[in-house]
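Page 42, continued from yesterday. The earlier attempt failed because a stray header line got pasted into the input along with the sequence. Redoing it now with the clean sequence only.
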Amino acid sequence: MPLLIAVCGIHEIDAIQSDLEPTHAVSLLDPDESWPRVDGVTAENHLTLPVHDISQPMPGFTHPQKAHIRALIDFGERMRPTIESDEARVLVHCFAGISRSAAAAFALTCQLTNLTEIEALRSIQDHRPQMWPNELIVTLSDKLLGRRGRMVAALEAWRSQHLYTGRIL
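This time it went through. Structure tokens are written below.
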């Protein structure tokens, strides 16, 4: 199944979309952010998830929840015919392209490919070395995809080998 996922920050969308020519897009931004348009992607092929980049509930913030991840997984299922009949090119972005978008790309890669969980993480890292996937999104995705802790374990193993510097490369 041909699937190409590109992860980026909001300020990189123009550059990425001109090279990628996405067929689908996933935007994960704070609920009060302006939502960018991704050229060539119809509204039905653009999923927007209004969540803050936090890994636990905090007053005044919208943490990633089961309903958000269910929407992501349902979006992936709607993408499946495109993947099976042609090449799907998915642009996944958040504000910085490090946490929320990397976690969502990880979930979609696990859902829609035959890669192992660690291979899925490495495939994203190959294109986005500064990634540091949001652990709550990964945990919820693991449960809803029936991965029995394998996504969480892969993330923990991957993180133990990488140091997050907070720098955007």
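Notes: The first helix runs from residue 13 to 20.
Reminder to self: strip header lines before submitting.
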